[in-house]
Amino acid sequence: MKLSEPSYYPEIVERSEEISLLAQDLANTKRGEGAVVVIHSGPGVGRTALLDEFLRQSGNSGARVCAATGSAAETGNELGVVTQLFPEDGPIAAAVWLARALDDHHGDPSPDADRLFDMLRGEFRQGPLVLAVDDVQLADAASLRFLLHLIRRLRTTPVLIVLTEPVGSCALPLAFQAELLRHPRCRRLRLQPLSVDGVTRMIEPYVAETEVARLATQFHAVSGGNPVLVRGLLADHRAGQRLEEQGIGAQYNGYPAFTQAALVSAYRGDPVLFEVVCGIAVLGENASPALVACLVDRGADVVARVMTALNTASLLNGPAFRSPLVAKALLELLDVETRGELHRRAAELLHADAALPADVAHHLLATPIAESWVLPTLLAAAEQAVQGGGQDFSLDCLRLAGRQAASEEERAAVVAARVRIGWEIDPRLITPWLGELGAALRRGHVGSSDAAWTVKHFAWHDHVEEAADILSALMERTEENTDAHAELEIVRHWVRYTCPTLLEGSVDADAPPLSGPFPQRFQLRPASYAVEMLGRLFTEGPCDQAAAMAEEILRGCRFGETTVEAVEGALLVLVYAERPGRALHWCEALLEQAGDHPTGTAAAILSSIRAEIALRQGALEEAETYADRALNAISRLGWGVAIGSPLAVRVRAAMAAGRTGLAGAWLNQDVPQGMFRTRHGLLYMHARGHYHLATDRPAVALEDFLTCGRLAKEWGMDVPTFLPWRTSAALAHLALGNGSRASALAREQLTRPGGGWPRCRAVSLRVLAATSELDRRPALLRESVNLLESCGDHVELLHSLADQFQALSEAGAPAKARIAARHARTVADNCGTETLFRRLFKEEVPEDTDESADFGQDHQGFASLTDAERRVTALAALGYSNREIGRKLFITKSTVEQHLTRVYRKLGVRNRADLGDLLAGINLAAQPQVMGRTSSAAVG
Q1: Which whole-number Å values give the CA distances from 185 to 63, 67, 68, 753, in the listed order?
Q2: Residue 559 zone, left/alpha/beta (φ > 0; ψ -120 to 50; rest)
Q3: Are the beta carbons of 601 and 559 closer than 8 angstroms?
Q4: Burial (CB count within 10 angstroms: exposed 0-12, middle 13-18, buried 19+), residue 914
Q5: What is the sign, positive or negative, of the torsion defined by CA atoms of 378, 382, 387, 393?
Q6: Cβ count within 10 A of residue 2
Q7: How far apart are CA 194 and CA 147, in angstroms?
Q8: Tens digits of per-residue pLDDT, 751-798?
Q9: Among 67-71, 122-126, 574-578, 887-891, whose mean pLDDT is lowest?
Q10: How many other C-beta atoms lie within 10 A of the C-beta of residue 114?
Q11: How far apart are CA 218 and CA 685, in angstroms?
């Protein structure tokens, strides 16, 4: 539909009930009964539109219509409304004469009043008559006296008087209201905002049919169903369509029609209303009646009435405007000076009212104030904002704080805050301020907490010498200060497991190693305990107690509230204690708290750990996804020396998926040289070694693995659950033909702290099998497979199954070899490692191979199993105990034992382990039917 005036939409909706009531009152005038109807509503809800529609319908029905509009500009004009209703040259001029007679006597009876009213009543009886006054609260006093004179005589005067008034501060005089409330023929109609259905009916002639539902919902959310605002949104939407702009916000935000609609709603000739709505727009969520009253210098009762009126118009949602677009449009109507003054007063009021620093800072950014409380408020607001995800606002506060700082101490406080907050957002942001922070620290202008973490910030960005100097100075300076020393202890532990080379030559290098039992309660706070536990793991190996305590810490962690050092330390304890499932649980819970698209350093570190967990579970796609998220959560420069961890995961995942070209591309990216002096560098170098090994460069790979081992030993981090460099080097030795050296490394790894943990032991056993005689390989590989199944590393499991397949094939057991291949196929299908499966199993078992036939070939006794023996066999192969099998099959434990004894004899196996190996990879749930078919075939 094309409109000649796009900003005007005359249709009114959801007002049929009100129109019907007014029409009924008009019909009653034909019986000589007068009435008065007062229509009231909040601003912009549509009382004028309703009145105009009723007057139009009344005129079309043959009624006479006399209408007037009150105006603040004409309130002082005596009889201004009366002369609008009854022009002196019109047919009902007697009304003006009566009004003047009443005015001359200030409403008291005059000798001519009765005679003039009789003349007027005669005119009224000529036919249905509607007297309408819009915004009657703005009528002059003389006109109000005249209207009251008529209202008192409605019993004998066949006229319908329709008045409109707003809900709010500027209402009718109390005397006039009292008269109306007492009158038996007075009806009050209160208009409500439109519903979503009403908005839909209002806009559907003007927008595409496919867009109606979406736009109606969005328009209602912004306008609250206020018809004036809906019209503004609709006009701007149509204008946006003509400009081919996409998106609802882009179409109406900043367009003039919506701004004009906000002005119409806020300014109805009532200056108090406009002042109050501007005060609400400035204060936002802090707009209580008391604060708004102080801000605009009006009485609290007056402000409360205006806010009530705005609520009835659905313009407010709580204390603030329903949509920030309304507040923005209103503030744009103010000149810069007035707007700045409102923000200045708002900042002072909120500060005095002990409001949140961020709420005060919003106004300080709009108009800076030179007061002593401003700087600490801005710094506190920056801290508060970054915790809530308001990174841009936080940086704005810091920039203003920098301009406010006057003394050296204040400038140092601002720089420390820039570094502290900048590191949380993206460590790249802090590089320009590290030099100034170091200088302020040397002058003693940096607090103990910020001073301690300065060591980490310098080390993170590969300024190792400066970090070491600061650490030494702080260790000497804080011996007497308990709080400062406690904070420094956290940093010291972090340095030990992250950048151990930093301790070389420092005072801390001679500190005693971590030893002794774990404390039974938190000594300082979670961060201190978590980093200490991780340090112990690297020096002493994993233990169940450490894993349990890590989970206890994580139960109390909240994203954005708990320091990232506490979260990282506790999660890595679980990862390197081979608890990937529990680490996954806590890591996902924290990432869920971070939101759908988390950014910032904490999110980056969490995503990197989540990627490492996925890699250790063989979930290659997840590992790549979370490594990418980690690398995108902050800038590459922001990762500093820690970039080695996500890159290592990305390389290992690409290698496992068979994408060596992609792995090489990741390795070709520039990394800081200082990374190789950190824990992250060990992981990176280990991944690089595997890339060299896969690309047929075993000598280069061996050099990387041995370098990892040498550094891990030097740094006291030689724990195979963290870095299994020995088995990796053993694989390189095997590729070079050094079987004895490979065997020695694998055996050595088994003896290391943590070397006997399932995943680590399984890999060592696989390497030992590769260096052992053929008759020993199946047993070693069977244990390796069982261990890997228990810990859930699908990639390592595929490697062990591939070796098992090869060993069984060479040992002359093709049926068992095919079972191993089938098992591997199931694993590959479940974890999406098809490429790895095909690379490991050059000749895949055909899809239609019948496992039962293999059993028939290798075990002729299998066909002789009874149905009962088959059921017991299936459950035993799944790992159920005799007692559990008995409960499931409702037989005694001794009966189960008897069945198994006969099964072992018929199948030629010695125990459950042999039985499980025989049935590996078979769908045991369908086994009775398969066995039945085999048995039938044998009999036939």
Answers
A1: 20, 20, 21, 95
A2: beta
A3: no
A4: middle
A5: positive
A6: 6
A7: 32
A8: 999 999 999 999 999 999 999 999 899 999 999 998 998 888 889 999
A9: 887-891
A10: 12
A11: 53
CA dihedral 457, 460, 461, 463 (to 10 degrees): 80
User: By the 8 A CB rule, do 851 and 930 touch?
Assistant: yes
Can you name the residues that pair with 160 across neighbouring β-strands?
35, 130
Q: In the chain, pLDDT over 90 holds for what percent of residues?
A: 41
Q: Which residue has the tokens 């936080």?
A: 394
CB 620 within 8 A of CB 833: yes
User: Tokens 């005067």 sit at which residue?
Assistant: 157
In this structure, what token pair is assigned to residue 746?
């694998």
* Tally of residues, the chain: 940
The candidate with the shortest Cα–Cα distance to 286, out of 355, 217, 198, is: 355
> What is the rounded CA–CA span in Å between residue 391 and residue 829?
43
Hey, what are 731's tokens?
A: 């694989």
> Helix, strand, or coil here: 739?
helix
Cβ-based neighbours of 554, under 8 Å, separated by 6 or more: 567, 570, 571, 586
Mean pLDDT score, 202-210: 89
Two tokens, residue 221: 């959310």
Q: What is the tens place of the pLDDT at every residue in 628-687? A: 999 999 999 999 999 999 999 999 999 998 888 999 999 999 999 999 999 999 999 999
Residue type for 327, please? A
SS3 state of residue 188: strand
Q: What is the distance between the alpha carbons of residues 431 and 317, in angstroms, rounded to a whole number?
A: 43
Largest CA distance in the chain: 134
Q: Which residues make Cβ contacts (< 8 Å) with residue 940, sequence separation at least 6? A: none
519: three-class secondary structure by DSSP: coil
Summarize pLDDT for 339-351 with one digit per residue, the tens: 999 999 999 999 9
